[in-house]
Each structure stands twice: as C-alpha cells, then as structure tokens.
Amino acid sequence: MNNDLSLSKIGLGTWLIGGDVVANEQNDDEKDINAIIYAINNGINHIDTSESYSNGKSEEIVGQALRHIDRKTVFIATKVREWNLQYDDLINSCYNSLKRLQTEYIDLYYIHKQNPNIDIKETCRALNYLLDKGLIKEIGLSNVGISTIKKYNKYLNKKIYAVQNQYNLICRESQNKKIIEYCTNNSIKFIAWRPIVLSYPGVKDKFYSEGTYPILDRISKKYNKTNIQVAIKWLTQQNNVYIIFKSNNINHINQILETNNFSLLKEDWDILNTDFPVTFNKGCTENEFFEVS
Ligand SMILES: NC(=O)c1ccc[n+]([C@@H]2O[C@H](COP(=O)([O-])OP(=O)(O)OC[C@H]3O[C@@H](n4cnc5c(N)ncnc54)[C@H](OP(=O)(O)O)[C@@H]3O)[C@@H](O)[C@H]2O)c1
Predict the structure, then answer these.
(1) How far is the CA of 155 from the centre of ligand 1 (A)?
(2) Is 197 touching ligand 1 by the criterion CB < 6 Å?
(3) Average pLDDT over the chain, rounded to an integer
(4) Which residues lie closer than 8 Å to 219 by C-beta, 6 or more apart?
(5) CA dihedral angle for residue 23, residue 27, residue 30, residue 32, rounded to 10 degrees
(6) Which tens digits make up the pLDDT trace of 251-264?
(7) Ligand 1 centroid to 159 CA: how many Å?
(8) Residue 1 reports pLDDT greater than 50
(9) CB of 48 sitting under 6 A from ligand 1
(10) CA nearest ligand 1 atom 4, residue
C-alpha cells in the first residue's frame, strides 16, 4: 500500500462509468474523467473500479483521469472477477488492469466474488506472486463472510487489507453477521458498497426518495440535509466503515462531500439503526457464494 495515504472515509465508485456490463460507445468519457478528477481534487483519495465494469472501460477512464493527478496521492482499488481466479488467469487479469489503468501498481486488488470451483490456495499463490512483484500493494475480498476471510489469510503472505460488502440502511448482513466487528478487531478496513441506491425486489425506494421512510424524512429535516446525506452519514459515522458511492455529477459529489461537515446525534443514529422499517440480512444476490471452502 501507499503507506503515506490515509484512506478518505468517502471513496468514489465507478460502476456505470463508461457503460454498464459492456462499454457504451456513446458514453460521455470527458464528463466521467472530469468527475473523477474533481472528486480527487476535493479530498476523495480512494477510487474503486473492477476489470468487469463496462468490460474494462471503467478502468480505462480511471487511467485517463490519473494522468492529471499525482499518482502517489490516490489509492486505486480494482477487482478480479470470480471466473479469473485460476493462477494464470488471475495474473493475466492483473496485467490487463494495470495496462488499462496506466499505472505500475494497484493499491488494493480485490477478489470481486467468490468461486467455489477454484481452490483458494491456487488463487492465493497468484496473489502472492503479484505482491512479490510489487504489482499490487494490498489484497481485498468482496462479497464475503468471516470464515472465507480466515481461509485467505491462511495462505496469503500479507493479511487481507479490506473487505468490501454491500452495506447501507437497508442491507444489514455485514452488521448482523458481525463481519464489520470482525474486520475492526482484525485491522481490516470495511468498505460499504452501494450506499445510496436500493434496489431490492419489493422495495420501491430509489435514492431514499422523500415520502418513503418517514423516520428518514424527519431526521433529514432536523439537520436540514437530504435523505441521501443522512443515509451516507449513518454509514460514515461508524468506526471503520468507509463508503464508495458512484457519481459523475459534480453537484452530487459536493452533496456527498458536505456530509463531512455534520454529525448525527447518537440518539438519531440509534433511531436509524434500530427503527429503520426495512432491513435485509443479505448483502449480495441470493445466488452468490458468500462463503467458500
Ligand atoms: N463489490 C461489489 O460487488 C460491488 C457491487 C456494486 C457496486 N460496487 C461499488 O460500489 C460503488 C457504489 O455502488 P453503486 O454505484 O451501485 O450505487 P450508489 O453509489 O449507492 O448509487 C449510485 C447512484 O446514486 C446517484 N447519486 C450519487 N450521489 C447522489 C446525490 N448526492 N444525489 C442524488 N443521487 C446521487 C448516482 O447518480 P449520478 O452519477 O447522476 O450522481 C448513481 O445513480 C460502485 O460504483 C462500485 O464501485 C461494488
């Protein structure tokens, strides 16, 4: 890791930057690049991407933004997909990410999701090789539970640096299964993905729209903040919880950055924690492998 950097609590995600599953040839790349540069110049030093976001184009856009920034001041996280976890595939994926990102090293390299058909030992061998070569500085796991974190730590030459799971007011799996607590006790950073958009079946809410959750409306009004800002603050106020949100809209980025300037009173944080009307004990889609042997 770039040891000089202290990770900002608020990081920028890049899912839907450059397309979605595939690259969008009509994408406004300049808007995305400018948003990333703006975020970095305004205190966000953590950018999150993946080899699969817009089929590599998201990494390319991050790489283009990096050309305008002093590389040492930014912490770049990317991910290898679960179908590339065999030794040669993983190393190949990493080289391709480095090329798209136009960088000599990746600060944090995640296993994006688990694959029960590939032996963790083999995956760890490839990760250890990349660490030895200095091509990756830290290793992370995404969409995992505690027993899988322990398994990786058995075979890695460097302990897991970060765990990235879905976590927000609705999705409480990492809280209820004590994954966040485990991470904190073991000096692993907990990164909350999808802090804003809620897209569970049966839940109509998107962007925490007003009128959906009266307790959120009430607390937001009390602090003169938007529902999104309060939902973000509920996360970032927690010890060892870091967020990555996506935006290529400067006003939206500013709104999220503004959350650095206020705190929720404990009583309001507690109300949101205990009384939020809809919570689910799952963080990924149901068919993902949260724990692997
Ligand atoms: N590890 C994994 O499996 C995994 C899975 C999903 C996501 N992630 C990571 O987590 C990041 C965040 O998740 P996400 O992108 O799915 O969802 P998100 O960050 O919760 O929500 C993004 C959406 O919120 C909007 N938005 C952002 N700020 C806003 C504001 N202040 N007011 C109103 N709308 C606002 C964005 O639109 P605008 O762009 O128009 O602002 C975008 O539509 C991803 O980008 C990715 O890096 C990881």
Answers:
(1) 33
(2) yes
(3) 93
(4) 230, 264, 268, 271, 272
(5) -70
(6) 999 999 999 999 99
(7) 28
(8) no
(9) yes
(10) 193
AA identity, residue 159: K
The Å distance, Cα 269 to ligand 1 centre, comes to 22
Could you tell me the pLDDT band of residue 11, with boundaries at 50, 70 and 90? Answer: very high
Q: How far apart are CA 202 and CA 190, in angstroms?
A: 28
Give residue 201's pLDDT: 64
Residues 6+ apart with CB under 8 A from 153: 159, 160
- Res 33 pLDDT > 60: yes
- Rounded-to-integer distance, Cα 139 and Cα 121, Å: 14
Residues 9 and 242 sit within 8 Å (Cβ to Cβ): yes
Q: From the alpha carbon of 284, which atom of ligand 1 is closest?
A: 3
**pTM: predicted TM-score of the whole model, two decimal places:** 0.96
Give dist(CA 275, CA 237) in Å, integer: 17
Nearest CA to ligand 1 atom 30: 252
More confident residue, 151 or 286: 151
CATH class of 10-275: alpha beta
Predicted confidence (pLDDT) per residue in 52-73, tens digit? 999 999 999 999 999 999 999 9
Return left, alpha or beta for 5; rule: phi > 0 is left, psi -120 to 50 is alpha, else beta. Answer: beta
d(CA 79, CA 171) in angstroms, rounded, equals 22
- Domain positions in the chain are 10-275
In the predicted structure, residue 205 carries a pLDDT above the cut 80: no
CA-based Rg of the chain, rounded to a whole angstrom? 18
Structure tokens at 93: 């994926």
- Atom of ligand 1 lying closest to residue 255 CA: 31
Between strands 162-166 and 46-48, the pairing is: unpaired
